[in-house]
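Researcher: Batch entry, complex prediction.
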Amino acid sequence: MTRLTIASVAAASLFAGGAYAQTEITFWHAMGGALGESVNAVATQFNESQDDYVLTPVFKGTYEEALTAGIAAFRAGEQPNILQVFDAGAATVIGAQGATIPVQDLLEANGTDFDIEDYISGVRYFYADSDGKMIGMPFNSSSPIMYYNVDALEAAGVEPPKTWEEFASVTAPALKEAGYTALAQSHLPWIFTENFHSRHNLPFATNDNGYDGNDTQILVNNDAIKAHFTALTEWQDAGYFEWFGTGWGDNQTPFENGEVAIWLGSSGSFGGLAKKDLGFEFSATYLPYWEAVTTEPKQTFIGGAALFAMAGKSDEENAATAAFFNFLASPETQVFWHKDTGYVPITEAAYELAAEQGYYEEAPAAEIGIQQLSLPAGDNTRGYRMGFYVQIRDVMNREYGRILTGETSVEDAFATIEEEANALLSRFARTQG
Amino acid sequence: MKRAGFTTAWLPILLLVPQLIIIAVFFYWPAAHAIQSSFYLQDPFGFGSTFVGWENYTHLFSNSEYLRIAGFTVIFTILVTFLSLGLALLLAVKADKVIRGAHSYRTLLMWVYAVAPPVAGFIGLIMFDQSWGPLTEFAQMLGWDFTLGVTYFDTATAMVVVSVWKQVPVNFIFFLSGLQSIPKSVREAALIDNRSASGRFWDVTFPLLAPTAFFLLIINITYSLFDTFGVVDTLVKGEPGNNPMTLVYKVYVDGFRGNDLGGSSAQSVILMVLVLALTVFQFRMVERRIHYT
Amino acid sequence: MSDISADTLATDRSSAPPKRRIKWSTVVDHSVLIVGSLFMLLPLVVLIQMSSVPDVEVIKTGPSLQIGDQLDDNFNKAMFQASGFSGENTGTSMLINSFILGIGFAVGKIIIGMMAAYAIVYFRLRFATLAFWIIFTTLLLPLEVRILPSYEVVQSLGMLNTYQGLIVPLIASATATFFFRQFFRSVPEELVEAARIDGAGPVKFFIDILVPLSQTMIAAMFIIMFVFGWNQYLWPTMITTDEDMFTLVRGIKQITQDLEGTNIPEYGRANLLAIIAIIPPVFVVIFFQSWFVKGLTESDK
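Model: Structure tokens for the complex:
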């Protein structure tokens, strides 16, 4: 592959502009299984759509493995043209200016009229810099939403809760009465921390959630979230809420088995739920909010991963990368991706196209994520940018686990998270020096 | 030491050179790199870095979480090493003893040997699955509400069980070959000298197994410390949370997964020093008591 | 653990052993072995059962006693269906790669380790102990924790995406040297004396006497090293990007990986591939086991 790429670059320069040679580019990703097949399908469609460029996607293991492989390769000058980086790794790759070419610059340099407003509101800024310039192209994007067992809620005679107050006083007791555990969720840091702050428009970190500088301090030790976790422990004691560990599937399975009535998962999960032929009807709606904290709940932001154009490549290859990004952002590709994987489309145009095709009539749950991402934005809703965030999430997961197994108190846990996260942030700031 | 050796000067050097070159290039150079980066905080892509002296080390020793992981690693290593060695020795002794079906047992017991660590971990996930795992159901029958991934102790138990399960066959093969290589004449002599069966085992058989056992001890300790990585990673599903983890997994979590090069390098250096000390100690304590030939 | 091997000899040879006692101990022996075998094998049986039923069912109900009809289908998918873009990483091609990695690694390591151990044990070498410790230290830091610098070395030697690049860095560890040192030191000293009296030089002694004598140990080492190479995951993931270089464990991970519950992974296919991945090493073990056990017993005259 390396030899081929070098050969094609040489060939391209020989023919001055590469009019006859195809430019080959590589794309490292972390999408295994059926998702990987969707990636391969998109790549094939791209290769068939034109004659100038050939894209080769390569599966590089988990998100973390793909990122580290990309880093190792970059240090040795063997980087791929495109690297998929997940949300928590964004600060690492964006912090290393010079490692990537901002996607907005790349597209504009190659003659695309780029407008960030074309992208769905909750999608736009997560991988952007403090000035709102898009650095990474959102790829597999999802947001946490609330799934519920329609049959269970009917049996209990309740509606899906809009607020946590409603959940605690009406929904959960009724569901318990009807023989269900009311609530489970699959990712505490993502759903009950990051997007909790966005939904309630609370600042998550100083420096505008970390976008404006490296000397950031986390603001997670606040009353709103502590009250939320205190409520969780109370619900756990009352039999309204159950936690099944950090494994995503362990928390989803009880919902699928009909033991848990409401499950907070990803907007992308509906595809898997639909394929499992559940013994009940399910539907989805927005994440609840605390009325005591806000009466104007805001949008959530995206999780998942984005594609970054690695620096240090020839202009021909960068042109190929830009062409692929344009292809990827086109409404047709986005709709294909959206339907095939369950991830949200990233542009308004793609959303409209899917709606036109009547997709949301056959799969209403697929629309919830997009709608929630399109709710009103606030000052604190575009995302977060914190270094060593993978470790910060580890600390959160650890302390939350201890809260829910009774090993520590909410108060102590958040003090520990704040302390360790700030230590990690200050260490990260010095890696950039 | 007591070996009557050859005296040719150039040959041993020639023999050692390939090994030394390979480890110099692929071990010492990268390891030196790791030691160097343990004194820095570095941007993984290689753009920024700050010299921080011993801070990466002091940071670790003041971190109660790191000490907790170290404690778990010690207990885990002891349990896995001794359980897998003990179980394998028991099975090897029995397989050496039975006449009928000896061959079938031998073949059956070896199957798991080739299971890759991540696959072993995956099998562990199946056996201990929260909703339908056969071993979870078994534990519940005994009144133990086993929840992998929720309770620290339960996850630790699963890690030990899977690691032992995977390691028994290697030890079994070696112990069995060791036992079968004990000369018949020795066994017969022992039979006359010593009447009690366990006496015979500990006085005669076990000392003859000692070189094998010492080799296995070291191999098992390095296995428990390093090669259980795939098992741990799979059992915690890549998200350690409040689950136990080993020191090597911690190096992976911070370095490979979290891209903290300085911090994880310091951890590798600490680990290396600890294991080196442990091995020197073993060599001094144990090897003195083993009779080669 | 208490009644040990000599009992069987007793039953064979003495004409009238006290019958009840011996029967009991045999029963105990067999029970221990049966329980042990079950402990080792049941999980594999569960895995096979699970790959015979549809994936949806497995996810819902887990293992059961029922044997489904998906084995064929999953076998075909596991062996012949590519899981990548180029269509080159089928089960068969991954098997071949794992084979090359396993055998290359085992052979390389044994040759290099034996040579080094011979130098350390059989020569009056001033720095023999030092050399041993230099080599031994490599046991102390696994490849996983020095991946970034190792990657750079491999890249600068132009070995990315090659079998050498996969194999050679893994050889940089002391297991084989340590193992052969242990063994050489237990070889009777009189052999060297005798060889010297016969006028055999160090090379002749090594090739004509020591290597044949080590046959069994070579076999044992081969098994360990083969399996180690066979099961590599992280290192191949780092340094190979061509899909025709994928190894088995990597393939298995690729099939089972899923994000945020968006799909139902093909567990049946992955489980079956995992079972298939166990078979070749087991054959290697069985093949060499009879060899080295025979060797061991023959050396006892």
